[in-house]
Amino acid sequence: MADVGPVLFVGDSVTRYQYMTLIHFLASGKYQHPFDGRESLSDALRHRPTKLHNQYDMLWVHAKNQISEHSTGGSPGLNYQHNRSAHLERAHLALRLHIDPSRKAHLYYGYVGSGVFEMQEAIDWAMNQRQDWRYLILNVCAHYTKDYTEAISRDVIAVVEWARQRYGDAFDKAGTQLVWKSCTTPQEKVRDLLDVEERKIAQYATATGLRIYDTRSVAKAATDQHLVTTWSAKEVHYLQFMYEQWNDLLLNILCPAAHAGFKEYR
């Protein structure tokens, strides 16, 4: 990941859990609890609140502790801001490589629920952190209700156009690529509506060069095979093994092993 460059995940709680699952894997070399065991990083409800801190606070505390436990000595680790009532969740993992501690991988996360403004605000925050981004991975989905799903493609396209206009020079200089992470909401009542939105975004992507990280196909394949993938039938949050599938897909795209100069480390 250090070779890839800095990566930002922008999205709602589904993206948060994917991010936490991924950074645990990068720090420890393994995933945590496939079916959301005790203190799972893909399920805030597995954490015990205190008088001062809610379950989501404790989730972030546990994530930071896990990174500290598993990462190479001297790693800056996981730094975050979290205020659930203010809808504020931002994180930065700076992880030293085991094989070369002088180099670091950088992965960021910014929470958004819905709407153009929230996505713009997240990208502004990211560009204030640094200008050398490799990938800005954007997702919104679950907070758009059944009667409002038609706004997803409109909002996403508007934000991509805005970002390219506002930060186009910086993107060109750094080789930054904007990426749409497709919707994974599995409920039957919105499935067809989301498919329509995904087709609109795909058409725009083909015309403009927007990259698509197709997590939806993985989620739909599991649904079509009647796998139990979410906390409950009405939930949009997945059991960890699904985040593992999406992360494995992402890592195989970003970090293919079979390239010139690849060395196997044991």
From TrEMBL:
Protein name: Uncharacterized protein
